[in-house]
Amino acid sequence: MVAEKGQGFAVGEGRIGRVLIAFMAVGFVALIAAGIAAAWMTREFSRHSAAVSHTYEVELAIADMRRLIEQGETTRRGYILAPETPGFLQAYREAANALPRSAKRLRQLTYDNPKQQANITRLEGELSQLLDLRARSVDLVANGEVAQANAEFREEMSAARLREIRDIFDTMSKEERVLLIERDRQQERGINLFYSVLTVAGLLLLAVAIASLLVVVRYTSDLTQSREQLQQLNESLEAIVVDRTADLSRANDEIQRFAYIVSHDLRSPLVNVMGFTSELEAATTALGALVDSVEAEAPELLTEDARLAAREDLPESINFIRTSTQKMDRLINAILALSRQGRRVLAPEPLDLTRLVDSIRDSMAHKLDETGATLTIRGTLPSIVCDRVAVEQILSNLIENAVKYRSPDRPVEVDVSGGTVGDRIWIEVADNGRGIDPRDHERVFDLFRRSGTQDQPGEGIGLAHVRALAYRLGGTITLRSALGEGATFRVSLPKTLTLQEKP
């Protein structure tokens, strides 16, 4: 009877690790789903904003063209009634000259909307006739035939034609309003879907936490029962039983702490996973000792599944989890570092860029000597008033990347140069390294994105950090490169950093 219970306990130990790993995997899936939903929602917000901005551009173009038509009609009538006033003719010509450009812009903005294109075609037909009549009236007045111009003006029915043109404009404005309403509806549906995904992910995480806690409590209970059973196996094995009991007590304490983490630290799933991994590793050591003891003293109690679980399955799974969590921990720490940099108060001060580059060269002297690299300052670097830490981090990252991603075919050469353009300065860091494919020029600035052969350590945050710092300093960074031809990073910054943010 005791042997049967002990055997069932051993099988349970083999399963507990897999169950907990499964729960952790479900939690990761929930987090990934929430992250994908957030990324999708961000993209939808951007798309919606662009669409709304385009709608407002179209409405402004409609209003501008409408204004020019009304201005042309008003100034023409003024010129017919008072030809001796030169202001009317000048205003009429200004409106007439601007009208074709306005019509062209309106057609370009609505090229993807067949309804608006049809409306513009109608508008151009009406407008062509109106413009011909206007031109004739102005020519008659200019030639001194004012009476003839007045007579033709009364007969041409321009008021009816203007009403038709206004109706077309009203139709186009209504079409843009309909598009705007539909886009707002799409945005609302996207927001509702986003919150639904977050709700499902939250509920799933809660369910995983509860299930994990129940498993751990049940496992703790099984450990206690097994300890009592082992104490009764054989009085001659009293010393072994005492040792085993102590091991089980320590394992029980670890499991209790593990349960505490699950119940109180759920808000940080990664911390939970790393904590679980440590607890399982300690428990695996204890269980391994236990298996060794049972195998030596009572081998009939130990099954092959239990032996494999304690010596192979659990250590292998724990190593996999630890490797994955360590990588994620590094990524999260990198993001936190970027976040802290964003909250750091900038402190502008006059900087000697030449001296700054020299200090970077001194700090990297060992690496430069080790790789045979040379760092050269070309010409005179410009003066700047900026944050020392941020500028130093930008240049350090670019120079270190130049040394890291060197070409195996030639010694590393890194050139730093700079200049002034208006109220801004530029700094270039050029190298003769392996180069970057033009298709990846934008990609390399994204967080966790890297280009080319991944034979160097790193998480893909250096250039993202550089760009974030450059933007915060009011600057930009661009890249010129081709495979096998090296890379040149150009940083543009204001001569004097003006703080616009609150500490």
Q: What series of H and E elements makes up the topology?
A: HHHHHHHHEHHEEHEEHEE
Beta-strand segment tally = 7
Radius of gyration: 38 Å
Count of helices?
A: 12
Instruction: Report on the biggest sheet.
Output: 5 strands, mixed
Tell me the strand order in the biggest sheet: 2-4-5-7-6
Round the mean pLDDT to the nearest integer and report it. 77
Strand content: 5-15%
SS-derived structural category: alpha+beta
Helix content: over 70%
In total, the number of domains comes to 3
Secondary-structure map:
Layout: H1 2-81, H2 86-109, H3 114-142, H4 146-155, H5 158-231, H6 238-264, H7 269-297, H8 304-343, E1 348-352, H9 353-363, H10 365-371, E2 374-378, E3 383-387, H11 388-404, E4 413-421, E5 424-431, H12 462-472, E6 476-481, E7 487-494
Parallel strand pairs: 2-4
Antiparallel strand pairs: 1-3, 4-5, 5-7, 6-7
What does this structure look like?
This protein has helices at 2-81, 86-109, 114-142, 146-155, 158-231, 238-264, 269-297, 304-343, 353-363, 365-371, 388-404, 462-472; strands spanning 348-352, 374-378, 383-387, 413-421, 424-431, 476-481, 487-494. The protein is α+β, with helices and mostly antiparallel strands and 503 residues long. The protein has three domains: 2-44 and 192-334; 45-187, Four Helix Bundle (Hemerythrin (Met), subunit A); 348-494, 2-Layer Sandwich (Heat Shock Protein 90). The strands form two sheets. A five-stranded mixed β-sheet has the order 2-4-5-7-6, with helices on one face. It has a two-stranded antiparallel sheet with strand order 1-3. The longest helix has 80 residues, at 2-81. The radius of gyration is 38 Å and the shape is elongated.
